[in-house]
Fold:
Amino acid sequence: MKNFIIRTLTAIGIVAVQVLCTYLSPLSLAILFLLLTALTVNEFLGIVSKTGDIAVSRPVIIVGSCYLFFAFWLNSLTQGEALVVFAPYLAFLLYCYIKELYGKHADPIANLGAIMMSQLYAVLPLSLINVLAFTKFECFTEPAPYYAIPLTIYVFIWINDTGAYLTGVTMGRHKLFPRISPKKSWEGSIGGALLTVASAFAVAHFCPFMSVWQWIGMALTVVVTGTYGDLTESMIKRQIGIKDSGHILPGHGGFLDRLDSMLFAIPAVVVYLLAISL
Structure:
C-alpha cells in the first residue's frame, strides 16, 4: 500500500511537471526536454556500462547530446533555415570515432556501439519534440499551438498505459510477449488501444486543426510504437540483468522507465504527420 501511494504521488508530480513545462512556454518545453536528454543519456550509458565492456566519457557524450537537441530546437524555430547548426554535432561524432581509434580500450566497438545507440535510442527521439512543436505540417487545416501535439502524445501514452493495466489486471489471459515482459497481455494491449482511440474523438473536438480520422491514426501510431518502446526497454534491462533503469523516481525507477514509450512514439508521430501531409 505504501509503495502504491509513493508511486501515485510520483506519477502526479511527473505529469504536473510535464504538462506545466509544455504548456507554459516554448522555452520551458525546450528546457524540460533538454534536461531529459542529459539525464536519459547519462542513465543509459550508466546501465550499459554495467556489462563491464564499455568505458566512455559520459560528460563529453552528454554535452554532444545536448548540442544535438539545441540544433534541432534552433532549426525548428527557423523552419529549417539553420541546417548549418548541425555541423558541430557531426564533428562531435567524428571525434568519438577518432578517439576510439587512438584509444587503448580493449573493445572500442562496444564503446562506439554504446555511444551511437544512446544517440539513436534516446537523443534523436527527444530532440524531435522540437519538430512536433514548431513545424507547420501541411495536414494542419489551421494554425496549431506549439504544445498541442506534444501534449496529445503524453495523453495518448498515459491513457494507453492506464487502459492496458486495468484491462490486463481484470481480463488478461494471453501473454503478449512473455520472453520480454511476462506481465503484458493481449487483452490489456487491446483494451488500452480502444480507450486511446476513444480519447481521440475528444482530442479532435478540442483540437480541430486535424480531422477525427487523422487523430485516430495518430492515436494508433502512439499505441503501437509506444508498446514497442516499452518492450525494447524491457529487453535492454533483461539483457543487462536489472529491474529498473534507475532509482531517481520513487516507485517508477529511472527516466528510461518513464520515457520508454515516448522514445518510440515521438519519431513515429513525426513520420505519421509527414506522411499524411503528402
Observations:
- The chain has a mean pLDDT of 92.
- The two ends are 51 Å apart (CA to CA).
- Strands lie at 175-177, 181-185.
- The chain has one domain: 2-276.
